[in-house]
Specification:
Elements lengths: L4 H25 L6 H22 L5 H30 L5 H26 L5 H34 L2 H31 L8 H8 L3 H16 L11 E8 L4 E6 L10 H19 L7 E4 L2 E7 L3 E7 L4 H17 L1 H5 L15 H4 L13
Antiparallel strand pairs: 1-2, 1-5, 3-4, 4-5
């Protein structure tokens, strides 16, 4: 049985998504590197391709099954776009932007309603053109918004901060995927115009390109796979500066600090910073009669996020507070206390014993790049 170009590309994309799912599952289970929104996106992408393959095989020749599989695989791609969007939001902010989130939810609902109306109408031999209009708009619009409108700028900004070539490769990958969706969008626009009786002749080139449109997304997904196969430790980077990770005891003594590589060169004096945090916490507790410590200090362009443990206070200085940074700091404080329970219990004065905490960075903060130069005194 010979396969068409479209079928071959669907198979390639599905296998590629499968590889990425395995890679990120290994990262999560064995290396404790969590990016569940990205993993969910890849998993739904794999399921979408698998559903498409089942629909094409159609062993029983059952038309209902084929129509069902088509609606299912396109709907699963909608979930892939949505969770990819959530992943990008978590790279740049602590909570999703409410406007962007509302748009993405509305588009996912539009696609879902459209696709299952298509299934209902076609199974019952009814006209499904309007349903396809909803499904088409809900399909390629979020794809272009996520890949081209959101992802490409983030990876460009990430490269400007980190100078890692991987960010550019992933950016190019998203551009290739977007090209395929642009071709699909143009082809669908002619269909939509025809549905509303607007007479516009589509060039033959558009129809020819739509037949091979999946080639571009397959190239993009292969670039994603290649990036992560070359470096399994690469999970993601944050497109902003994170300056310092520090751990203090509850009485304000700094016991561990790591200077991070940044685009902006800012000198941070550890002792002054630790004294300031301790003083602010003391005032906060004394005057306001609150046992909890402050969780953040914000200024224009500089933010300090703070996580209070039982024995320590962990903090990060950053120019942007994001979901991954916040969650990472919470996890870091817990694991640091667990790893150094004996040392903290006996109030170890030799801070060199805490140096091995740097080994925690790869699993908890895969986006941190440690500064090569010696720590400032």
């Amino acid at each position: 049985m010979s396969l068409s170009i479209a079928e071959v590309t669907v198979l390639i994309i599905t296998i590629a998504f499968g590889f990425l799912v395995v890679i990120f599952l290994i990262q999560a289970l064995l290396r404790k590197r969590y990016a569940w929104a990205l993993f969910s996106s890849l998993f739904f992408g794999f399921l979408a391709g698998f559903a498409a393959i089942l629909g094409e095989l159609n062993f029983s020749g059952d038309n209902i099954f084929q129509v069902f599989a088509r609606s299912l695989h396109l709907n699963l791609y909608g979930l892939h776009f949505f969770f990819f969007y959530i992943f990008f939001e978590r790279l740049v902010s602590n909570k999703p932007n409410p406007v962007r989130l509302s748009i993405m939810v509305a588009l996912l609902l539009t696609q879902t309603i459209g696709l299952w109306l298509v299934f209902y109408f076609e199974v019952n031999a009814m006209n499904s053109e309007i349903a396809w209009v909803l499904a088409d708009i809900g399909y390629w619009t979020p794809a272009l918004l996520v890949y081209l409108g959101f992802g490409v700028p983030i990876y460009i900004k990430t490269y400007l901060y980190t100078k890692e070539i991987k960010a550019i490769v992933l950016c190019v990958a998203l551009i290739f995927v977007s090209i395929g969706f642009v071709i699909s969008m143009i082809n669908d626009l002619y269909f939509i115009l025809d549905v509303f009786k607007i007479d516009v002749n589509a060039p033959d080139l558009i129809a020819e390109l739509s037949e091979v449109a999946n080639i571009f997304p397959s190239i993009g997904v292969i670039l994603f796979v290649a990036t992560y196969l070359i470096n399994l430790d690469y999970v993601y980077r944050l497109p902003n500066d994170n300056y310092l990770l520090m751990v203090l005891t509850n009485d304000g003594n700094p016991i561990h600090s790591i200077n991070l590589k940044t685009r902006k060169d800012i000198e941070i004096k550890d002792l002054l910073l630790s004294g300031m945090i301790y003083a602010i916490n003391s005032v906060f507790k004394e005057i306001l009669q609150r046992q909890n410590t402050i969780t953040s200090i914000n200024s224009e362009g500089i933010n300090i996020i703070i996580e209070q443990g039982e024995e320590i206070v962990a903090l990060v200085i950053t120019d942007r507070v994001t979901y991954f940074l916040n969650q990472g700091l919470k996890r870091y404080a817990k694991i640091f206390e667990k790893s150094f329970k004996k040392e903290l219990g006996r109030k170890e004065q030799n801070i060199l014993v805490y140096d091995k905490a740097i080994d925690l960075l790869k699993s908890i903060f895969p986006f941190f790049i440690v500064e090569d130069k010696e720590p400032k005194e």
